[in-house]
Amino acid sequence: MALSIHDLKKEKVGTCVSGGLDSRTISKRLTEAGVPVVAFAADLGQPDETDINDIRTRMAPCGVDTVIVDLKAAMAEACCEVLEAQAMYDGGYWNSTGIARAVTVRGLLPEMQKRGCTVLSHGATGRGNDQMRFERYTNVLAPDMRVYAPWRDPELLRQFPGRTQMAEYLAGFGISAPVGGKKKYSTDANLAGLSHEAEDLESRFVRGRAVAINGRDVTPIEAMVLANGIGGRNGVGMKHALENRVVGTKSRGVYESPGMELLGAALRFVYQAVMDRRATLLFQQLSKLVADQIYDGRYFDPATQAARAAIGVFAQHASGTVRVGLYKGNVLFLSQTGCRASLYNEADSSMEASAGLNPVSSQGFAEIQSVEARAMARAGQIRS
User: Fold this and answer.
1) How far apart are CA 337 and CA 319, in angstroms?
2) Helices 258-274, 220-233: crossing angle, 10 deg rounding
3) Do residues 331 and 199 make contact, with C-beta atoms less than 8 angstroms apart?
4) Percent of the chain with pLDDT over 90
5) For the chain, how long is the longest CA-to-CA vector?
6) Pairing of strands 37-43, 66-70
7) Fewest beta carbons less than 10 Å away: which of 120, 275, 280, 383?
8) Which stretch of DSSP H or E encloses residue 332?
9) Between β-strands 13-16 and 119-121, what pairing exists: parallel, antiparallel or unpaired?
10) How many structural domains is the chain composed of?
11) Which residues contact 335 (CB under 8 A, 6 or more apart)?
């Protein structure tokens, strides 16, 4: 049964905050109702936060203490896992928000429990995907923890039908919270996304992980930060999607993931070299499953982990150095070296005389194929 604000007075609420208008409104409304509240913010390497501690400053006037949890390393690892799986959702975009929710809930729950919180509260809209992600990840990772969704609480929806009412409410307590200009959409930023001259880039991969960029050894965090900078200034990774939400509606979105797009494209070139046709087909199916699971808030489900384990079999051969060119939003293949597991043999595929595959050998294969082709034609199964 859904929790209302009146059910929370005997609970201790850990509320997920970003320091924005929604976060402050929810936190202040809960404290005014006599609900014990502790705010929690995840440091995911948000590029729009020059100082993550500013969140604590913005939340303080609402009467709550804010715990900031450093999850940059966990977010970078999640980016690597998504890249390894090439897990893109509707319209082929990197679902940076979906994977961030998995990292956020998994990282914040232990800190909430450590402080005696019995309810997780989030500010996700009742019309979107994030409400489902927050709820499901809490259910699977801490089944005894309850979830409060303020924007599904009829009382709060009546009191705050829009951002203007939220700002007016906070102003009544002397809390400045500008509604903003004409912006009618929310923005989510983390290490994987949000962010442009042309240049070359060289990436070195070991078992599907980027370990060096432009000759410099990098950690997962360094890889994402560096790739975001290089990709961003070249306009890489801007995707528009009219996506299918978990709740059945369609949503228009614009996603900026320059680092993910750049590293993902480079890794794709390595995968193309090491996978045969059947491996590629299976990989594509597994990749789609992982992408859908991330979108649906099911990253920790057994099906996701089984698919990721299978993807790891392919990734273990994906080692090599890729050189690409970036120009006006495009990632162009230039060269690939050091890929010992590559299945490509230039002599086999050459149109010129070579020591590769003997063309005469193909005669028998063609004759075998013709048996089936003629049988289908004679049986009337082929229509021209």
Assistant:
1) 10
2) 110
3) no
4) 65
5) 86
6) parallel
7) 383
8) strand 330-337
9) parallel
10) 2
11) 322, 323
Give tens-digit pLDDT for 322-378: 999 998 888 999 999 999 999 988 877 777 777 877 777 878 888 888 998 899 899
Regarding whether 284 and 145 lie in a shared domain, the answer is no
Residues 9, 204: Cα–Cα separation, whole Å: 54
Q: Is the pLDDT of residue 193 over 50?
A: yes
Q: What is the pTM of this model?
A: 0.86
Q: How far is residue 149's CA from residue 125's CA, in Å, rounded to a whole number? A: 8
Residue of 146, 141, 150 lying closest to 122 (CA atoms): 150
The answer to whether the beta carbons of residues 69 and 56 sit under 8 Å apart is no
Domain that holds residue 47: 5-171
Q: In terms of domains, do 167 and 32 share one? A: yes
User: Which range, of 13-27, 142-156, 176-190, 259-273, averages the lowest pLDDT?
Assistant: 176-190
Q: Please report which helix (H) or strand (E) contains residue 70, including its range.
A: strand 66-70
Answer whether residue 100 shows pLDDT above 90.
yes
DSSP 206-267: ETTEEEEETTEE--HHHHHHHHHHHHHHTTTTEEEEEEE-TTS-EEEEEEE-HHHHHHHHHH
* CB crowding 315-344: b at 16 or more within 10 Å, else e: bebbbbbbbbebeeeebeeeebeebeebee
In angstroms, the CA 327 to CA 313 distance is 33
CA distance 100 to 345: 40
Q: Residue 163 carries which side chain, given as an amino acid letter?
A: R
Which is more confidently placed, 178 or 211? 211
Per-residue pLDDT reduced to its tens digit, 130-186 = 899 999 999 999 999 999 999 999 999 999 998 899 999 999 999 987 766 555 445
Say which residue the tokens 């202040």 belong to: 28
Q: Are 237 and 122 part of one and the same domain?
A: no
Given a cut of 50, whether residue 197 has pLDDT beyond it is: no
CATH number of the domain encompassing residue 45:
3.40.50.620
The packing angle between helices 277-295 and 302-315, to 10°, is 140
Q: What would the pLDDT profile of 47-85 be if each residue is shown by its tens digit?
A: 877 899 999 999 999 999 999 999 999 999 999 999 999
Same domain, 262 and 157: no
